[in-house]
Amino acid sequence: MRILIVDDEEVALNSIKRLLKWRGIRNVDTCNNGRDAIAKIRETDFDIVLLDLLMPEIDGLQVLESAKPFRPHTEFIILTAIDDIPTTVKAIRLGAYDYLVKPVDNDLLFLAIKRAYEHRGLLIGLSATAGYEKNKRPQAFAEIITRCPRMCSLLSYAQVMAAGGNPIMITGESGTGKELVARGIHRAGPMPQGPFVAVNVSAIPASMFESQFFGHTKGAFTGADMPYRGYFEQADGGTLFLDEIGELPIGLQAKLLRVLEEKSFYPLGASKPVWVDVRVISASNRDIEQACQSGGFRLDLLYRLKSVHIHLPPLSDRAGDIPLLALHFLRKSCDSHKKEIIGFSPEAMELLNGRNYPGNVRELSQMIDNAVLLADSNMILPAHLGMISTAQSPLARRLCTLKENDESHLVYVLKNVNGDRSRAAQILGITVRQLQRKIAAMKKNPQWEPVLGDI
Fold this sequence. Notes:
It contains 19 helices and 14 strands. Mean pLDDT is about 85; it is low at about 130-135 and about 390-400. The strands form four sheets. A five-stranded parallel β-sheet has the order 2-1-3-4-5, sandwiched between helices. It has helices at about 10-20, 35-45, 60-65, 85-95, 105-135, 150-160, 180-190, 210-215, 230-235, 250-260, 290-295, 300-305, 320-335, 345-355, 360-375, 400-415, 420-430, 430-440, 450-455; strands spanning about 5, 30, 50, 75-80, 100, 170, 195-200, 240-245, 265, 275, 280-285, 310, 345, 380. Strand 3 (about 50), helix 3 (about 60-65) and strand 4 form a beta-alpha-beta unit. The protein is α/β, with parallel strands linked by helices.
């Protein structure tokens, strides 16, 4: 068990650390401020975090809200001198496992830690039974191409939290796959057979908000020749996905909040309310908390939408996924454009791996699609990507024998097709049997044996 204690009082830190060591828990780390705590939790996979609530600058709730999306399986136990029910409710909504009031009885604290550790194991176990161990991601999220441990952990957390039916907010940079995750949550939720209605909030004019979301009766206004079922009614019995929720004008947020609270609304021109059972998933690439502080977003609406928070990492933090995604988009584009391209040259893949992607997965997808259109050979080359490879210069390469160069290229291809012998043989232009013989010969070389053993 690995535990982090966060408290701005050194006496409290040392006291709890001694208690845990006396109880046999040796792997204990400490932190005396919220800012460092967030950094430590993001860098290290702690099992339990004992978190003081009242700290200067960044308090415990801010630490919890910032860190939980990055470590969904880490359990947080709040320790505070204030027994306040609204604060307790907020902490639980943000993902805290327990809330203890100081001074905490030693046996009670240890019992809470024990139960939190068991709960963490249960969540991980549920994720495994949902297909995490087999596919590295739950089956409901099979559309998402990843082997990144952090992404798989987030998707497993989403799988577990989806079952509750509570509102979920997904944040992350543009192009990180927020709608794909939302669709996976819908599939893993309590109403997977119901409709999934996706709405780009920023594209709806303020004057049409009520009509689009709540619908209208025939003759409700000039031009209303037919009755219209709004987005909420269309999503009844399913999921309403509100993309770019941060762009919703402040004047319309109260109307949305009321529908979320009452689960009913009046279509324009109607005299009777319409009741709906809708799960709301929202998404934003904006800092909504900052918008709340500046008055651009209602805090009560944020709390209603953010019962569960999932933050998707940028593609730059998923570097190992780039070859997987590139090959996936290559096959997809080849099918779309009726072209036969077997893969990427080593130089092209090196450039893809080393590139920064401000547009994330969406940018990578578009780049591969353009490369397929430009390709005039059966391999994607740096020129097709609109980039020049320094590796094309003989002076930039390490001097080696042809045999060493061939072996290095073979290993590179095998790694980029994840050990698929048939695919690797096709790219190399040899038979699978020839490839197997080359691998067997290379394994006798101490230089290659450990590398090939992992493929």
